[in-house]
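Quiz preparation item.
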């Protein structure tokens, strides 16, 4: 029994370390950390909440790393920040009231959808940038951006896989084209979405704290140390690896 506990702890640590490293390089870290929590026997809802808590500190640290790129984006933050907080809270509350068996039924489709978003994200971004927005009024653009961010935020609070890709597409529709500034704003908004969701999960006592604490440490170490290794790899190979894992896990969830 003690050996099983040790092996499960090692699995969670490694999964969170890899997840933290990937999130700082290519994204897709949840494809490793979330399934690891399922593998050790956590209820899917508890696993989802625990994963959000485990990876949030790394996301918050990313905001500090992008502080230079965030300079001059106060109008965008004022526009999209409040709706991100509101949407993240709504999504988290929806998760908390969703029966575990219903969430378990939805889980394979959520995982597959997140994997497809990750796999086709370059094409999605390219298609969005080709859209002609020259005749759109600033008010209409702002309303559309708020509505899109609201939908993405609700999804993010409920599950969260692929929200970074969705937000980059939405920011492209706003007319942003500097990828570094877009990534900075995306990271900030994702931190707001996940942060308010984490608060809701903690208040509702939906977090398994022992795995969460272990994974927080591992994710931070992975974000700072593992990224140095991951950056030496071909980004295309890293993406292919994440996609293969995502599809494999989706298939496993469908047939289990």
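Solution:
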């Amino acid at each position: 029994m003690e050996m099983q506990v040790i092996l499960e702890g090692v699995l969670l640590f490694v999964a969170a370390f890899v997840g933290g490293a990937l999130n700082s390089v290519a994204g897709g870290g949840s494809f490793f950390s979330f399934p690891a929590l399922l593998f050790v026997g956590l209820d899917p809802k508890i696993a989802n909440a625990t994963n959000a808590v485990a990876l949030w500190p790394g996301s918050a640290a990313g905001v500090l790393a992008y502080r230079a790129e965030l300079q001059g984006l106060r109008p965008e933050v004022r526009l999209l920040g409040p709706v991100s907080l509101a949407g993240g809270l709504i999504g988290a509350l929806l998760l908390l009231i969703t029966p575990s068996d219903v969430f378990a039924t939805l889980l394979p489709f959520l995982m597959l959808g997140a994997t497809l978003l990750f796999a086709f994200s370059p094409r999605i971004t390219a298609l969005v940038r080709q859209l002609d927005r020259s005749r759109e009024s600033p008010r209409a653009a702002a309303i559309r951006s708020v509505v899109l961010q609201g939908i993405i935020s609700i999804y993010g609070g409920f599950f969260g896989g692929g929200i970074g890709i969705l937000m980059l597409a939405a920011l492209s529709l706003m007319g942003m084209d500097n990828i570094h500034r877009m990534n900075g704003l995306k990271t900030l908004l994702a931190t707001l979405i996940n942060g308010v969701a984490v608060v809701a999960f903690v208040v509702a006592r939906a977090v398994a704290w022992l795995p969460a604490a272990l994974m927080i440490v591992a994710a931070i170490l992975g974000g700072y140390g593992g990224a140095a290794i991951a950056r030496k790899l071909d980004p295309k190979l890293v993406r292919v690896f994440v996609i293969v894992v995502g599809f494999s896990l989706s298939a496993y969830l469908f047939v289990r």
